[in-house]
Structure formats: C-alpha cells, structure tokens
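name: query_chain
kind: protein
chains: 1
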Amino acid sequence: MVPLRTLDDLKATMTETPMPTFDGRALINGERVAARDGQTFDCISPVDGRVLTQVARCAGADVDTAVSAARAAFEDRRWVGKAPAQRKRIMIRFAELIQANADALALTEALDMGKPIKYAKGVDVNSAANCIRWYGEAVDKIYDEIAPTPQTALALITREPVGVVGVIVPWNYPMIMAAWKIAPALAVGNSVVLKPSEKSPLTALRLAELALEAGIPPGVFNVVPGYGPEAGSPLALHMDVDCIAFTGSTRVGKQIHVMAGQSNLKRAWTELGGKSPNIVFADCPDLDKAVDAAVGSIFFNQGESCNAPSRLFVEASIKEAFLEKALAKVPGYQPGNPLDRNTVMGAIVDETQLSTVLRYIESGKSEGAKLLAGGERVSPVAGGCYVQPTIFDGVTNDMTIAREEIFGPVLSVLSFSDAADVVRQANSNVYGLQAAVWTRDINKAHGVARALRAGTVHVNSYDEDDITVPFGGFKQSGVGRDKSLHAFDKYTETKTTWIRIDSPV
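structure:
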C-alpha cells in the first residue's frame, strides 16, 4: 500500500470522515496561542510518517501563563462558584459535544497515535464521553457529613476542590486518560492545566475547545502541549499547582513524586506501569474464551496498554493445547492500516517506541526464549511504524521480557505447577496493576485473587470493567485510583468546621 497523502485517497479507501483541520497551538485562558518563544515541533503520524501539523512547543513561561489563568479562574469562582447542578449540566453538554464530534475525534486519534479507527471511535471516544458525563451526573449526588459530636457542638465535614490541578497524560489512550483525570477534577470545581504527550497531543487540544463550547469558563481548562522536561517538569514543580495527576512510565512517575516534594508538597497521584499476570489453570471453565482474552488483550491497542496481560502463566498440563489455539489466532491480528475499518491492530506510536519493542524482542531471543510467532517489523503502509504480533514460549521470570514493561504486542508465556507456585511467580515483579485467574474452582479463584498483589484481579475474564470501579495499582504501579467515586478523593480536600453551641436546648 502507498501512503495516504490526500483527502481523496482517504475518502476513497478508508473513511468518509473529512480530514480534520489540525490546530497545534496551546489553549490558555480560553484562547488558542502559540508558545511564548514561537517554538513548535512536528506532529508525525505513525500511520505513514506524514507530518500532520506543527504543535506549540510550550515551556516554563507558557506553563506559568496557564497556571496563572487557572489560578485566577479558581479564585474568582467563575467555575467552582456554580452550583453542582449547574456544573453537571455543563459537563453533560461537554460529553454530548464529544459524541457529536466523534468521527473527527476518532480520525484525529487514529492519525496521531496509530490505533485502529474502529477502536478510536468505538472505545476511546465513547469512553471519554461516558467518563465526563458520569462525573458530571455524580457531582450533585455526593453528600457531605455531620459528625456525631456532643450537643454542644456541630461539626461539618465537607469536601472542597484542591484548587489548580496539573494533569500529565500518556500517548496510548490520549482521550481516555485525559477524561479519567479532568472529569472528576473539573466536576468538583477545580481548574486544570493539561500537558498531553508530545507523541499524541491533538485530541487534548480539541477537547479543550469543546469544553469552552459546552460552557466551561475560560481559564478553567487549559492545555499546554510540549515535551516532558520542557513543559511537564515545570508543571510538576510549579509552586502554584496544588495537585499533579500523572499517567505514564514508572521512571517518570518517580520523578513526579520527587518534584512534588521539591516544590510545594503538592498532592501527587501517579498511575504507572504494569507487567500483569494472566493465570490459566487446568480447570479453566472455557479454554477458548481464555485464549481469546489472552491474545485479544495483549494485542489490543498494539500492546500499548499499561494493563496488558503480558505475562501469560499456563498450567503445564494444558500449555501445549493452549498455545496451539493461541497461535491459530495470531493471523487475525496482523497489523494493517489504522484507517481501514477492518483493521484490529494498527501502528506503534512512533519510531522510538517501535525500536524499543524490537529491542525487547531481540532480548527475548538472546536470553533463550523460544519465538513462536511474529517478531518482525512489517509495512502494511509505507513509512509507518508496524510490528507483527509476537509470542514467546519458554520464558522464565528472570528474563528481561518477563520483568520489564515492553508496551508493545509481545506476549511472554510461562508455565507453573500449582497455585502456590504461580502466585509466587506472579508476585515476583515490581508492578502490581492488574491480574487474572481462570478456574472453575471458586475457592481457588478467591484464594489466588486475594494472594495476588494487584489493584484489579479478573476472574474468568480480562479487562472487563467500567467507570464505576477504581483503576490503579499496588507497588510501583502507582499511587491513587482513577475512575469511580474514589477519584473524587484525589481532587478534593476534606475540611472540618467545628461550630460551638453554647446553649443547647
């Protein structure tokens, strides 16, 4: 296939959605603005290597301007001063505008990040809109408390927004990761400064425009694109940012916590890496379903998911049968053009990440793992960043591909003999984000689930959840939880107001 360079090519072969007009400028205080020093960077599509647009390369001065705008908006109470029911209506309108612009947002996400357009629309756009709607609907249903004090006092326990929230999100789910953080933060009345990944900044900028259109006042939601050291670090170090929420690598997450401590001890919430174990016992109730989940979940989003079940533990007695079924599924996940509605695995986000994935594949080979499928770069679209779905067998927990997060479509298969053995292996990792257990034995399911050190444990499924349940991890998978009502805890302070009553009746 040749690169899709023109709108006619795009419309003739892939989708009827018109090519969006990309505006790479920052959005600060309700206005689209260039970086203060005029610097930009190229936004390159991993689909075929085309330059989509130039994006403002924001730095410390731009972050200062955005934080000042956010602080002013918070202090004059243009947003937090609205009744919860008013904020709810605007948040719901925000969600409706996302749905109304679903086709253009999905096409932007597919071009910018490389994911298949069918998932960009069916998963990413819908999930982002649902998240924003859900938190909007929830905010006027959260009650404060009255403490059980003596009759001589009335003690009120109330939630208050923290103030200015800095948000730094990754490139793999740009809309969803942004929504998970901005939705609860905005719903309770905070002002937000969002720094999207330089690898996929375009939908974040468009979301901020839609927020303004919905009625969120200028200055309340600002977006400063740029590189981590130049824009992310100034945000995390800023003395007038009250809270920093980050999703990304554990390496950078540790730096975020250090910066929070070096500055003003701002609250720091980090959702970080994972190396999730997917455990299949011999008494798995549905082996075909387990195979579908194992293969589909590791290859979904090109394996670029922090919760991808990249360590597959299969009980030794059924491993060969399991692998035979799994290998038969691999041809259905060969990468294709992300703009084709039939594509289920698209492009790796950029050349740097593609090189990282290929380096891990070489590491698996050199350390003695057996390559069963894939492992090569391919070119379904010239100029793009694509790699085959890859499966290794004979992996041990001390191998690099079993210890480190690859963030690519690479599955490591390990075997085990009993429950105690697999729990020990599964927990012998610095991460603790998600896990799964496949068994028809309810006692085994509960016992293993309780023993696994992970924020979410699935039983006879993988990655089935919704906005009502918290998401986050143990150990070096981060601090705090996204999603559910628990997310409000991250963006609010708890205040006690003690009122003395001198003359009780």
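note: The two ends are 84 Å apart (CA to CA).
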